Structures are given as C-alpha cells and as structure tokens.
Amino acid sequence: MKEKLAFLFENWKTIPNLMSFIRILLIPVFGVLFYKGYSVAAVAVLAVSGLSDLFDGKIARKFNQVSNLGKILDPIADKLTIFTIAIILFLKFNQAENKTLNAFSWVFLLFLLKDLIMLVGGAFMLAKGMRPGAAEIFGKAATVAFYLVMVLIMAIGPEVGAFRQYYQLNDTVMMVLVVIAVIMTFLAFASYMPDTYRQFAKRFGWGKYKNGQEEK
Length: 216
Hints:
The chain is mainly α. The chain has a single domain, classed as Up-down Bundle (Four Helix Bundle (Hemerythrin (Met), subunit A)). The chain is 73% helix and 2% strand. It contains nine helices and two strands; from the N terminus they run αααααααααββ. It has helices at 2-8, 15-35, 39-62, 68-94, 99-104, 108-127, 137-156, 171-191, 193-204; strands at 209-210, 213-214. The protein has a two-stranded antiparallel ribbon. Helix 6 runs parallel beside helix 8 (171-191). It is globular and about 60 Å long. The protein starts with a helix and ends with a strand.
C-alpha cells in the first residue's frame, strides 16, 4: 500500500493538479449558488471549471507536468462535476411546468449512469492492480461538448437559464443538443472498452491471454 501511495503521489505538486483540486472545490460552490437562485454566478463558476478542465491537460503536456495523481484526479473532477450538473438539471426539469421538459428530465440521468459505471469499474480495476485508461480524444471531446451544452442551458435554457429574459433557447433545440451530448458521452465510454477488456483479459486469463501472457 505504501508503495502504491508513493507511486501515486510522485511529482504531484503541479499546476494541473492544483487546477483539478480547484475544480473539485468549485463543485459545491456551483451547486449551492444554482440551488439558491444565483444563476449568473453559478454559470460563471461552471464556465471557469470548464475552462480549467480544457487547459489543465495542455499545461501538463506542454510543461512536462503529467503526474500519476493527475491521471486519476482529472477524471474524478470531471465525474463529480457531471454528477452535480446532471442531478441539478434533472431535479429542475423534473419540476418544470412544461410537460415536455418534465418528461425529458430523465435524459440527464444517462450522464450519471455512464459515470457511475466508470467510477465503480475504475475503483475495481485499481483494487485489482489495474489502471483505468486515461481520457483519450473521444473522452475529452465528449467532456467539452457536455460543458458547452450545460453552460448554454444554464445561461439561456428554458425555465432555468440565467439570461432567459433576454433570449431563451428553443425547447426542441435544447433537447437535441442534450441528446447529441449523451451520444458523444456513450461513444467516449465505448472507446475505453478495448483497453479495459485487454487489461481484464490479462489479469484473469481470458481469451488469448493465459497467466497474464499473450499467447502467440
């Protein structure tokens, strides 16, 4: 255990890791602000969180600050943010006066489902000595799409938008954007499957692997 912790916290004091910690701290701030009705401030906090998620990986690669902790901390910050947003929007639209939006509210739980599966699966893999895959291009693209759509909804979405008195997004357009984000999210999820299966196959001796070795 000590060796695993030492490996995890090797060279962990980096700017990207600090940005990930800040993103995690911003989650309850965002949730409380939005719940209390401070929609403009909540949208600003979410935008800052999204921008930090966009740039932390670029900073890590450009300045050689990639760390073992960062590979875990970054997706955890992503998933906790997604959990919070998905639950808040589900609750908001579930109580909406518009019956179409009321019925559509359940779509937001699909984001929650996907990340719950990844969290449980990732925890199981770590417990078995395997490493969950880092976010690839599909995962990052899906996360960016998620942030863009959610910021748009919270800014000008029907019934919840902070600036909807100036301009309100059409219900159908909003639902189409959310469905696109859901599709991208599950495509990204599917992109993790080949490497995840390979690790499980090596660990448990499935298919062409036997005792952790690939059979030629």
